[in-house]
Specification:
Blueprint (H helix, E strand, L loop, with lengths): L1 H31 L9 H11 L1 H10 L10 H25 L20 H32 L7 H4 L4 H10 L11 H23 L1
């Protein structure tokens, strides 16, 4: 079940983490090729680009370079997640407001029957649409994944997503008498660890009362 949740929510989220900065770079480049027909605010675009690189940088450090987050408590990890969530929502709203008029009357969907000055303008328009959709899709999956993490489910748990030896996992789950306490070392695993520890404590309290 956890693996299925990971594929449904974690994998699209991970793809969007890398897609957002790539599409932003594409938008900037294609806008620059319209010979001034479409322009962008340098401060807004480059600020968003830098901020959009935060998530992929963290993901690379955690899952590829195996950075150790064990010193971060589950409470701190959860607090950082909430701060990042609201900061991302605020940045997305601000970015949308600042860029709302940059198409200069061109419909958002960039229809083929619209009269564009050049084909490059339509391509730039399509790049902007893709960038905008990916931005809010990222926010949507960020909210969903944050809720799952707070509930104790880690959609980006690499052990559940990319386990190669399913038989070994089944045998371990069959012989183990206690739930695993945070298989990963990332900040998401720390949140999941806190939830598991709390559940174990509640079970122990119930047994003591009996």
């Amino acid at each position: 079940m956890s693996s299925r949740i990971g594929w449904i929510f974690g994998v699209p989220f991970a793809i969007l983490i890398f897609a957002c900065p790539i599409l932003e770079i594409g938008k900037i480049e294609l806008f620059s090729r319209t010979d001034g027909v479409l322009t962008y605010d340098t401060n807004v675009e480059y600020t968003y680009l830098v901020l959009s690189l935060v998530a992929p940088s963290v993901l690379i450090l955690v899952y590829f370079f195996k950075c150790n987050w064990d010193n971060i408590s589950p409470t701190t990890a959860k607090s950082l997640l909430v701060v990042y969530l609201f900061a991302s929502i605020g940045i997305s709203i601000a970015y949308t407001v600042f860029t709302i008029n940059e198409l200069k009357g061109i419909p958002f969907g960039c229809p083929d029957n619209y009269h564009y000055e050049t084909s490059k303008v339509q391509t730039a328009c399509q790049a902007r649409a893709a960038n905008f959709i990916s931005l809010w899709a990222f926010i949507f999956f960020l909210i969903l994944n944050s809720i799952l993490l707070i509930l104790g489910v880690n959609p980006l748990d690499e052990d559940k997503l990319f386990a190669r030896d399913s038989k070994r996992r089944k045998s371990k789950s069959a012989t183990s008498t206690q739930p695993p306490l945070g298989g990963g070392s990332g900040p998401f695993s720390q949140i999941e660890l806190g939830q598991q520890q709390q559940q174990m404590k509640e079970k122990e309290d119930i047994q003591v009362e009996k």
